[in-house]
Amino acid sequence: MEEIVIEKQSVSETDINNNNESKLIIINDDINSFDHVISSLMDICGLDIETAASVALTVHLTGSCVAKTGDDDTMQEMCMSLCLVGINAKVEC
Questions:
Q1: Quick one: which of 2, 93, 11, 20 has its CA closest to 58?
Q2: Annotated domain spans of the chain
Q3: Sheet harboring 64-70: ordered strands across?
Q4: Could you tell me which residues come within 8 angstroms of residue 42 by beta carbon, excluding any fewer than 6 positions away?
Q5: Exposure on the CB side of residue 7, measured as CA atoms within 13 A
Q6: Are 1 and 12 in contact (CB under 8 A)?
Q7: Tens digit of pLDDT for each residue in 2-14?
Q8: How high is the pLDDT of residue 13?
Q9: Phi/psi at 89 (nearest 5 deg)?
């Protein structure tokens, strides 16, 4: 069994939203498994396994997490795709 080590990184709000980019935020629920969230983040958002696992764990522990930033149209499309597979997500500017 492979062990995944997740390191906590400090990121300021300025670092995340430095170009008025939209933020794709994943919201915790009691329905989806870690595997489903991780694989969906990889497939839909293009995250690598380590980043997807880190986002999933942060969502579980804190209730939500910024998974990705980018132009609003792209973040809205990813949000809709995540919602279609049952993952709670929203986009904020």
A1: 11
A2: 30-92
A3: 64-70, 22-27, 89-92
A4: 48, 49, 52
A5: 3
A6: no
A7: 555 455 444 444 4
A8: 46
A9: -150, 160
